[in-house]
Fold this sequence. Notes:
Elements lengths: L4 H4 L2 E4 L13 H9 L7 H8 L4 H16 L5 H12 L11 H7 L4 E5 L3 H10 L3 H4 L3 E3 L11 H9 L7 E5 L2 H9 L3 E5 L9 H8 L3 E3 L2 H7 L3
Parallel strand pairs: 1-2, 1-4, 2-3, 4-5, 5-6
Helix pairs in contact: 2-5, 6-12, 10-11
Amino acid sequence: MSPMTLNNFTAVIFDCDGVLVDSEILGLDQSAAYLREHGFSWSPAELVRLFTGLRDDVFFGRLGEEYFTINGRAPDAGFFDGLLAVQRSRRDELLPVPGAEDALAAMVLPIAVASSSGRQSLDSKLKRTGLYRFFDPHVYSAELVADGKPAPDIFLYTAEKTAADPARCLVIEDSENGVLAGCAAGMTVWGFVGGGHCFDGHGEALARAGAARIVDNFAELASLLDA
């Protein structure tokens, strides 16, 4: 990467889960086990590939369709409630992704968060891990837009709110859906594989989705941005 990297971008937009906070790995094995009890056969790695980066309504819609295919009927509310309980069972263990705090403290470019999480959950995760202060007030939930990732809406909304040209925004994403969304917004997307949920082949999948570069961790990101 050329030393002119800073001149290429006017803002850096981060996804939250799996990039800033190491949330995607928490409860992942338990979620896979819960789904197996209901006829699903996905491994934890397959759950990551299929569903990370999706807004809750899209996630549950796709999951409900698959449930119907497997079981021949629509799931009752208890199915989704049970899965949410499993996913939240370890939220007290939430930590920042290693190196995030130091890298964010050294950033010289304007930064923002564009996440598929609901606003209340998003704020809570960033505040609990001590990262909210780096982004306030530029923390944006996909609840604010019509369509969640892989649609580009949340990234375009974030660019508008930060007065940044989408063509000069750098997106840091850990999911295929997020990479697709950033590319659809006309932004440069770097795939991030520093979260605990990034299994073998994760970077290759992000590259296939359109990521221009794969970044292993925050130390590498800070170095690339000359932060």
